[in-house]
Design a protein that fits this description.
Elements lengths: L6 H9 L8 H9 L4 E4 L8 H9 L3 E5 L3 H14 L6 E4 L5 H12 L5 E4 L1 H4 L2 H8 L3 E6 L19 H8 L4 E5 L4 H11 L5 E4 L7 E7 L4 H10 L5 E5 L3 H13 L4 E4 L5 H12 L5 E4 L12 E6 L6 H8 L9 E7 L1 H10 L5 H19 L4 H8 L13 H4 L4 E3 L1 H13 L6 H8 L5 H5 L16 H14 L2 E4 L5 E4 L1 H8 L5 E3 L23 H18 L3 H4 L2 H10 L4 H4 L7 H21 L18 H11 L4 H8 L3 H13 L7 H7 L2 H13 L5 H8 L5 H16 L1
């Protein structure tokens, strides 16, 4: 087929657009001319059109190999919208029954179908191969082609079988398309598909409208996310988590905090999953919390933020996922929460895999860590990873460029790094180079006798962080290169050798510091931890008054840490009160109203702005352990047997039971106490708690004497709290 077709007119006729984007026209022409084609277009660059339009213009049916069922359905619906012919596009995958598959085959045989979407698994089925042999194929399109490469972020072994199947079905041009591929992955794709001679169309990976930021992931990460979303109300966003469990938990926490969010992951039943996806596309919900299974090919142009709750396993995954923001060219905020702990977790997950795969995985993780920790322009780092040079000094749209760090001269440090890499014959990774510089006699260093090298220990006095910065920034500056195929060994480039001969200024910024941030400690102690000491003492007075009126010790009503939290968070409704540690629904109902009234009055009189709007409402603890303990006690199972069945010791079981009764749930453990305790002893302990002003076990033991055990006192205290407070 030649270029006589007026492609712009065809574009207008079928899709209603006046202009092609970027390279689209040249790509389509190359395919119409019968050539293999490799397309590297960033998310939002218009990949689908590159095979949709030619399929309508060429004889026969185009086969589109695509990894996701949800994506196929999306695309088929879109194509049918453009055409009056219902049968113009079809898909074959595991979700269709026999009658539906027969209908698809009939439409293809009648020449109605121009585009057939198949999953690689369906393509390899014998009956499908036999049927497709009898069909005129216009071309094969391999979408999300990075799935072919184990260096890609979403490797699928069945993608490796595409070429042999094409050979069985019949020859036709191949177009491979992906939104992310490093030079290594690109080479891998072309080799596997047998299209090494294909014409390559590459667009810039730069998405100027996206803002990139990496934040330290602390114990407050949920609060940070809620605060961010509330500052971006009624805007669509995606939050990516690595585990299904986290997806479910976070979606629940967001809902509890008044955010219209839903979960999405492969473990959900497909009806709920599809509904959540459709509701997101239709803007019935604002936020989707998802594993990376969500979003491939999701054509929602106005996603305004993408949050990574966990650091992704590779920079390609990160680029692909952040790329779902701002596809319409409008604002897109990409916020990632990073802690080194997450990387260690991901490395643990890889332990069962073959060694070669572990090595690849580790290297991809190291690249992600370098991106997160580096204080260099995020765009520069990302584009360098994809083999593209970004020459601007300051992109003006990432956290590092908006808050630049002071630069320091590192000319001598770079010379030391280059000398060390040459001394070890360019055969090692950056961690090893740093060990040599720091003079560490590790077993690996000793095995290579490298402690005898002249460069050994020449870098003592600088932190590892500084050496990491030098190496990372020398890679971006082109003085060093990384041999990706060979597990990330560092090499010195021609420019690096020149630099060593004639050193010139080389300035670096020190990496961002993501040291572990201490988890918040729960409030404890005598009022000094409460934010509002005046309110704290008023709450204590109220508790004392109630304790007199109800003839129960004050701590039975609320414990000190609960009052401290009230004087910090200012809950004014019973619902808010239940977010206070140690306050369950029962307690809130029984004692809460007077406390809420007091707090409300105090806030109004002192014009206090309550932090409740930014307060993270925790989802009621539906811990399976607690629920099953309550059920077992209801069935009168002996407590030591419960501990045995849960695989915990007796003291741990008592911790759980105490937590249950202190938050307001009534439990009756008389059946167990009657079995193990003398009635008089029980009464003595019970009376002690009735008279005492504290519920501390050590005070009780001191008062009662050596005759009583800690376990007995704890058990009676549980009975007492349950009866008197709940």
């Amino acid at each position: 087929m030649t270029g006589k077709i007026n492609l712009k007119a065809e574009l207008k006729k079928y899709f209603g657009f006046d202009q092609f984007k970027g390279n689209q026209e040249a790509i389509i022409q190359n395919l119409l001319d019968g050539n293999d084609t490799f397309v590297l277009l960033p998310t939002g660059g218009g990949k689908s059109l590159c095979y949709q339009l030619p399929s309508l213009l060429m004889d026969g049916t185009a086969i589109v190999i695509s990894p996701l069922i949800a994506l196929m359905k999306n695309q088929v619906d879109a194509m049918r919208n453009f055409s009056e012919n219902e049968g113009v596009a079809h898909f074959i995958n595991s979700s269709l029954n026999k009658a539906a598959i027969d209908q698809v085959r009939a439409d293809i045989t009648d020449g109605k179908t121009k585009l057939l979407y198949v999953a690689p698994e369906s393509l390899t089925k014998g009956e499908n191969v036999d049927f497709l042999r009898s069909v005129k194929i216009s071309f094969y399109a391999v979408d999300e082609a990075h799935c072919i490469s184990e260096w890609g972020h979403d490797f699928r072994p069945e993608y490796r079988r595409i070429r042999p199947i094409i050979n069985e079905i019949g020859q036709a041009p191949v177009i491979a398309l992906t939104a992310t591929a490093t030079p290594k992955v690109q080479h891998d794709i072309q080799k596997s598909l047998g299209i090494t001679e294909a014409k390559v169309f590459k667009s810039s990976f730069n998405r100027p409208n996206l803002y990139y930021e990496v934040r330290a992931k602390t114990a407050n990460v949920d609060k940070d996310i809620i605060k961010f979303i509330k500052g971006n109300t009624e805007r669509s966003g995606i939050i990516y988590c690595l585990s299904r469990k986290k997806v479910e938990e976070l979606a629940e926490i967001l809902q509890a905090n008044g955010i219209n969010a839903r979960p999405y992951h492969a473990g959900m039943d497909s009806a709920t999953r599809s509904k959540n996806q459709d509701d997101f596309l239709m803007e019935k919900i604002d936020v989707i919390v998802a594993t990376i299974a969500f979003g491939m090919g999701i054509d929602k142009p106005d996603v305004r933020f993408v949050i990574h709750y966990d650091i992704p396993k590779s920079l390609e995954g990160y680029y692909q996922e952040t790329g779902r923001a701002g596809r319409d060219g409008g604002e897109g905020k990409c916020i990632t929460f990073y802690t080194n702990k997450d990387l260690q977790k991901l490395e643990k997950f890889m332990q069962g895999k073959p060694v070669a795969e572990q090595e690849i995985g580790k290297q991809l993780l190291a690249e992600t860590a370098a991106y997160a920790e580096s204080s260099v322009c995020r765009r520069k780092t990302l584009l360098h990873y994809f083999g593209e040079e970004y020459t601007e000094e300051n992109c003006g749209n990432c956290d590092n460029c908006l808050n630049p760090k002071k630069q320091v001269e590192a000319q001598e440090l770079l010379c030391s790094v280059i000398e060390t890499i040459i001394a070890v014959k360019e055969n090692f990774k950056s961690d090893y180079i740093i060990d040599i510089l720091q003079g560490r006699e590790t077993s690996e260093v000793q095995a290579h006798l490298h402690e005898d090298l002249e460069v050994f220990g020449t870098g003592i006095g600088e932190e590892d962080r500084t050496w990491n910065s030098v190496i990372r920034q020398a890679l971006i500056a082109g003085y060093l290169s990384k041999d990706v195929e060979n597990y990330g060994l560092l090499k010195v480039t021609e420019a690096g050798h020149k630099f060593l001969k004639r050193p010139k200024s080389f300035k670096i910024t020190e990496d961002n510091d993501f040291e572990e941030v201490e988890e918040e400690t729960p409030v404890r102690g005598g009022g000094s931890c409460a934010v509002d000491p005046a309110l704290y003492s008023m709450l204590k007075d109220l508790r004392k008054k109630l304790s007199k009126k109800l003839s129960v010790p004050p701590y039975v009503i609320f414990q000190d840490p609960s009052l401290e939290a009230m004087a910090t968070i200012y809950p004014v409704t019973l619902e808010e009160l239940q977010n206070i540690p140690g306050v369950g629904a029962g307690k809130a109902k029984r004692y809460g109203e007077e406390f809420c009234k007091l707090i409300k009055r105090h806030c109004e009189e002192n014009e206090i702005e309550r932090p409740e709007d930014l307060r993270v409402r925790t989802v009621a603890n539906k811990s399976k352990m607690k629920v099953s303990i309550i059920q077992a006690i209801d069935r009168k199972v002996a407590l030591d047997d419960i501990a045995l069945s849960k695989g915990i010791d007796f003291s741990e079981l008592l911790d759980e039971v105490e937590a249950i009764v202190y938050s307001g749930t009534k439990l009756n453990i008389d059946y167990f106490l009657d079995e193990i305790m003398d009635e008089d002893r029980l009464d003595d302990i019970y009376d002690y708690f009735k008279e005492s002003t504290t519920d501390k076990i050590e005070d009780a033991l001191e008062e009662l004497g050596d005759d009583y055990t800690e376990e007995e006192v704890r058990l009676v205290r549980i009975k007492f709290i349950s009866e008197m407070a709940n």
